[in-house]
Amino acid sequence: MSLDADIASRLKRDADGLITAVVQERGTGQVLMVAWMDDIALARTLETRRATYFSRSRQQHWVKGETSGHTQHVHSVRLDCDGDTVLLEVDQVGAACHTGDHTCFDADVLMGPA
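Given the sequence above, the corresponding structure tokens read:
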């Protein structure tokens, strides 16, 4: 599985060949998590609609929910204007965060709404 050449040419990767992936819940618009993708992870996500990421700590690909059952079905993928971030719109089953929270942004509110 390889990334379409037109898409690959538009990506601006970091020094490790990665781009940021922001994951948003379809229906609520809530940001669930932020992860990293390389070309392989993005190609797999686009082909399978199963969110696939690259783990910087383990240096390997992982499919969200493959071991936990907390899956993400991808409805859309958008590239930002700079080409360095993708936005995934997903249906989340179970917790998105490894802590068991629905989102990775449930724990620490640094400033609430005005």
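The longest strand covers residues 72-79. Try to locate this feature in the token string yourself.
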